[in-house]
Amino acid sequence: MMNENHLQNDSMLNSPSADKVLETATASSADKILRTATVCNSDKDIETATASSADKILQAATKLFAQDNFSAVSIKQIAAASGVNSALISYYFGGKKNLYQEVLYTEADKFLKLQEKIKARTESPLSKLRSYVESIAEMQLQHPYKMHLIYRELLSPQPMFENYVKNRLYKVHQFMAELVNEAIACGEIVTAIKPTHVAFTLEGIIMFFFLTQGQIRQIGNFDQRSETNYLMEALDSYLASLRK
Predict the structure, then answer these.
(1) What is the rounded distance in angstroms from the CA atom of residue 105 to the CA atom of residue 230?
(2) Number of H-type helices and E-type strands within the chain
(3) What does the H/E/C string look like for 212-228?
(4) Burial 166-196 (b: 16+ CB within 10 A, else e)
(5) Residues with Cβ < 8 Å from 84, sequence gap 6 or more?
(6) How far apart are CA 32 and CA 108, in angstroms?
(7) Residue 148, C-beta contacts closer than 8 angstroms, at least 6 positions apart
(8) Alpha carbon distance 153, 150 (integer Å)
(9) CA-CA distances (angstroms) from residue 228 to 2, 24, 223?
(10) Per-run averaged pLDDT (10 residues), the chain, 244 residues
(11) In 3D, which of 172, 217, 226, 176 has the Cα closest to residue 197?
């Protein structure tokens, strides 16, 4: 009985119908694997496209907002500059207001990260202060339009971004004031002026330099690198007056 059953089974497996069933099953499994692989690859492509589109929007918006104010820049302009559909701006960032906030936070975070690097250095407070200003100057040379974005918020902040100025940009000022305070404590600076006021004066020198950099380059006949030396000379000249 068992032998007959085995023979029947072997006969069924070796029959043309069995071959068709096997081919169909194999093809079906292969299709499923192919579809799964395609879906996985599509997901990766979507993730890559998403990151790429969001980055393009952020980069384009940063440049446009730096060149003009928040109200003057339109969603249409940002979409055209980034090469994406305008609907994606709302999809990724929730609209122009949130995009502008993301731009501000991204730029402010660059200063905060720089501060952490400067803090970790084993230098005197004045050396750290010079390193900080030199690093900011280098950032300005690489992306000359970005500084205008931050300083515009300092000079004429948007009411809806008041917390940004208080929370993020205040930390930029606070760091410089702390370095001045440390320099006074160790005798590198001798002055009766409050550290925060010294920091404001230093920031004024730096701000004026960056905001008028194009004009300074023409009037002073500076090349793109030597103008940074001018900034450091101006900084050292003011600090030297505090040692008397």
Answers:
(1) 30
(2) 12, 0
(3) CHHHHHHHCCCCCCHHH
(4) eebbeebeebbbbbbbbbbeeebbebeeebe
(5) 53, 56, 57
(6) 49
(7) 66, 67, 210, 211
(8) 5
(9) 95, 73, 9
(10) 44 45 43 40 45 88 88 94 93 92 86 91 91 85 74 72 72 89 89 88 82 66 68 85 74
(11) 176
Cα separation values, 150 from 41, 79, 87, 173, Å:
40, 22, 27, 13
* Token output for 142: 């690489």
CB pairs under 8 A, 24+ apart, for 3-10? none
Tokens of 60: 């384009």
Q: What span, in angstroms and rounded, lies between the C-alpha atoms of 88 and 91?
A: 5
pTM of the full predicted structure? Answer: 0.68
